[in-house]
Amino acid sequence: MRILKKLARLLLALTFITVAGLTYLVMAREDIEPFEELYLPAQQGDTPAGALSIQFLGNTNLQISDGSTSILTDGWFSRPSLLSLTTSHIEPDRDAIAQALEQAGISSLDAVIPVHSHYDHAMDAPLVAEVTGAILIGSESTLNIGRGLDLPESDMRLAVSEQPMVFGEFSVTLIESTHYRFPGGILEDYADPRQEISHPLVPPVDVYDYKAGAAYSIHVQHPRGNLLIQASAGWVDGALDDVEADVLFLGVGGITGQSDEYQESYWQQVVHAVGPRQVIPIHWDSMTDPLAHEALMPTLLFSLLLDFNSARDLAYARGKAKEEGIEIALMPMWEPLYLFTD
Ligand SMILES: [Zn+2]
After folding, report:
1. How many angstroms is it from 179 CA to the middle of ligand 1?
2. Domain range 32-339, its CATH number among 3.60.15.10, 3.40.1260.10, 3.30.300.20, 3.40.50.460
3. Which tops the pLDDT comparison, 304 or 256?
4. Is 1 a residue whose pLDDT tops 80?
């Protein structure tokens, strides 16, 4: 009997430790504090004459406007939890989309451009295009997400790599890139751009049904200045050699999970190629929490499962930029930042 009692106590203690450990991994986050010094101050008031306004809305959502024309990358606001990603099918959250657009003050847009067709970039884009009157631009895979949500063909445009598209004074060029290459494991195939969504995708669907399709670097040119948005930490050798950008939005998600050689090539092929004066890291905040007032670091569980360590990734980008004398900064969310003010 005594042994049985001891065993029962041991089991209880083990259960307690496991539950406490799991709760900690689910609740605790990586530390943002060491990077708070990078935050640019919020700016108030209307867009100053001659400036471009940029608004960061988490992950790789960026609204870029010159006061007359406005474009948005991704438009991803649904953010299903880790539990729903792993145990059920997912679909756009219309309330979350409406709320985010309202909070961002976005009522109309000229174009919505997902960087590739994974759920965390493209799943909401057709609905955002629909409510803002924008045209949805992307690969055939992205357009099939649009078709699955009944977006009319006239509201979609197939991206042609390196062919500039004009919106007001903006010239926007999608340049074929590659996705972040998962170093093995079940996600290796998921990142393969040859995996395409070949038919209209009607949600709710499995997260893996949002196949990557083509991944793009987005070059935004404007008489006031040029930007490059590199959302996923991949590259095509030489693809950005003739591209120039004053400000580079650099996807850092997962970069330090790669070999030193991969990290160096990414920096060379993207940062050195476009020669920015300022680098703004993106794709580092939690993908499994609803959008909050400020960008949240990923939970420890997420970082552990995907070997996506945002603190390590941000430290890498900061270290490299400082070493090379390139300005590096983080953008606050929901606040316009004015670039190219005189
Ligand atoms: Zn992706």
Report:
1. 6
2. 3.60.15.10
3. 256
4. no
